[in-house]
TrEMBL record:
Residues of the HAMP domain: 147-200
Ranges of residues in domain Histidine kinase: 208-419
Keyword Isomerase: no
InterPro entries: HAMP_dom, HATPase_C_sf, HATPase_dom, His_kinase_dom, HisK_dim/P_dom, HisK_dim/P_sf, Sig_transdc_His_kin-like_C, TCS_sensor_his_kinase
PANTHER family xrefs: SENSOR HISTIDINE KINASE TRCS (PTHR45436:SF5), SENSOR HISTIDINE KINASE YKOH (PTHR45436)
Protein name from the UniProt record: histidine kinase
Listed transmembrane segments: 126-146
A Pfam family recorded for this sequence: HisKA
SUPFAM superfamilies cross-referenced by the UniProt entry: ATPase domain of HSP90 chaperone/DNA topoisomerase II/histidine kinase, Homodimeric domain of signal transducing histidine kinase
Reaction(s) catalysed by this chain's protein: ATP + protein L-histidine = ADP + protein N-phospho-L-histidine
The enzyme's E.C. designation: 2.7.13.3
Amino acid sequence: MPYEIVATDRRAAVAYGGGMEEFDPGTRHVLPAPPKAGMPAPPKDEAAWGYATRPMRIPARHDSMPGDRFGKDGGTYLVMYDEVRADELSSERVAALGIATDAQLRVHVVVLPHAAEHIAEATDRMLLRAGLVGLVLIAAVAYFAVRIALRPLEAIRVLTASVTASDPRERVTVPATGHEITALATTINTTLQRLDNAAAQQRRFVADAAHELRSPLTTLLASLEVALAYPERTDWPATATTAARQTHRLHALAEDLLLLARLDTRAPTADPEAVDLTALASRLAERYPLTERGPLTLTCDSTAPARAHGNPDAYERLLRNLLDNAARHAAHRIQITIRNQDTWVVLTVHDDGPGVPTEDAERIFERFVRLDDARSRDHGGTGLGLAIARDLAHRHRGTLTLKPRTLGACFELRLPQAPTPAGE
């Protein structure tokens, strides 16, 4: 790049090069010299002054040759320059340059268009190469970082791929990193545990259902086989009565199983209909067949209408199951009580039977559970009544629990209260 160093009170250039020799600055400098400094030199510990830039005209040359840096007619070029005081230099350097001790030096650097383009192209090439190298390095680092980060996900995928609906016992390893993958692994393990519990419950349900169905079928088949083997000695009315009783048990069990299957597969939905549980309980108490249950009395105690949103048939089935359970165990009396408490409707069914041990207060709501198995079978119980009642209560956003009592068993049903219609 062309440059020229000039000084005040000096006709020839102090130094030059990069093409300025075409003008022979050793005889007379080409670019203007600076004026003498009118202020003292800055202290040595201060920063140097910055360079300035301005366009300057280069004189024309009549003897220019092809390939010269400057054209035949000279031209105006952008020149960067900076000034240096001679007293900032050492005396030896001043003497070597051949300038006065109070002179002002100016360094000119001519920016040629093709040189600027060359610098820009070189800079672009360098930046392009650096950018490509940086992109490759970033891509490589990102690839290996993602591979390492996703390694736990691959382990989770391999383990979950081995899980089957019939045997969901596999569990994924929870990383100790504490980030999102840990939360994902924990959630998957929780889901697998729910699947495992559901599969185990389904297996128990199928086994219990098969056992319950086998008992009446065995009794019915044995009775009919004996009657057919010895027809002349068979009491046919008694045989028909036994067959009808066992068939009725099979029918009731099949209906309960179908209802449970529908409850398990159907999601709870909000029912806009409001049902008066006081009227429903009173109607059931009047029509309930107590003659088949022995000397029992059934009373319904209620002070006001008690409304809850839901399906009337579902509520009737729920209350009937509670009454059937109470009638099988009551000694003399069954009482239904209905009250409005805050935003809840509370219905209780209380009998004066032997009650339920405290340790079995939750187990009696499981399917096919009977605390007095022989007596329940004699009275036609399927072991599903209380389980169905609790499922129906939960579907209506309520609860069904066994309340502790000193005498008998007391089942409490709590349902969200429906608003009272306007005008009542």
